[in-house]
Design a protein that fits this description.
Blueprint (H helix, E strand, L loop, with lengths): L7 E6 L11 E7 L5 H9 L17 E7 L2 E5 L10 H6 L1 H8 L4 E9 L8 H7 L5 E7 L6 H15 L4 E4 L8 H13 L5
Bound molecules: guanosine-5'-diphosphate.
């Protein structure tokens, strides 16, 4: 049984004016292209094909809003760090992300990082978008590609890189590692904002 049986696509926003009303709660999913973000969303929400993987054209340059339950949303951001792709296209969605970060309904950020890379240049710029009252949780994805000691090292290094600003967990959609942990975190964030 899915934890989010009523999950549905809401809108692909090309401009802040198209964002859903700033009410309720939402969590943004961000990550470098190919980090496994779409796969993580589909696995956490238990709905294959909800977020389209990077090989699917379209939608990828836009902010995609999904409703998981009434007044509870996730936002799938464009993957960043494309080596190809025109600079103008990359810059075009920056104001969108800045507008997103100002929303009072935005409770937190899930940052998807390939466990083999760890938190790297580009990821930290993204972390700076997060307002102080917005929580950050890092999914170290594709840990099925690492052995136990490599995974432990990745977890240690990412925890250190975050320097207390966020939490980290191991995740694999393939091996189903950490799925429940991620689901619980997401559910908790969608229910309430932390005490100030
Ligand atoms: P996105 O660009 O961040 O949305 O990444 P995708 O979800 O499209 O995944 C990028 C690639 O990584 C695809 O080939 C996926 O099949 C693969 N991938 C995603 N999650 C996992 C995982 O948990 N384990 C492994 N081994 N591969 C994964």
């Amino acid at each position: 049984m899915s934890r989010f049986p009523r999950a549905q696509f809401l809108i692909s926003a090309a401009a802040a004016a198209q964002f859903p009303a700033d009410r309720g709660a939402e969590v943004a999913f961000v990550g470098r292209s190919n980090a496994g973000k779409s796969t993580a969303i589909n696995t956490i929400v238990q709905r294959q094909g909800l977020a389209r993987t990077s090989k699917t054209p379209g939608r990828t340059r836009l902010l995609n809003f999904f409703e998981l339950a009434p007044m509870q949303r996730i936002v799938d951001l464009p993957g960043y760090g494309y080596a190809s792709g025109p600079e103008s296209e990359r810059l075009s969605w920056k104001p969108l992300i800045e507008a997103l970060a100002l929303r009072s309904s935005l409770h937190g950020w899930f940052l998807i990082v390939d466990a083999r890379r760890g938190i790297a240049a580009g990821d930290d710029a993204l972390l700076e978008w997060a307002a102080p009252d917005q929580r950050i949780h890092v999914l170290l994805s594709k840990v099925d590609k690492l052995n136990r000691s490599e995974a432990a090292k990745a977890l240690r290094e990412s925890t250190a890189a975050l320097a207390g600003r966020g939490t980290v967990q191991l995740f694999s959609a393939t091996a189903k590692t950490g799925v429940e942990e991620a689901q619980k975190m997401l559910e908790a964030w969608l229910k309430s904002k932390p005490e100030q």
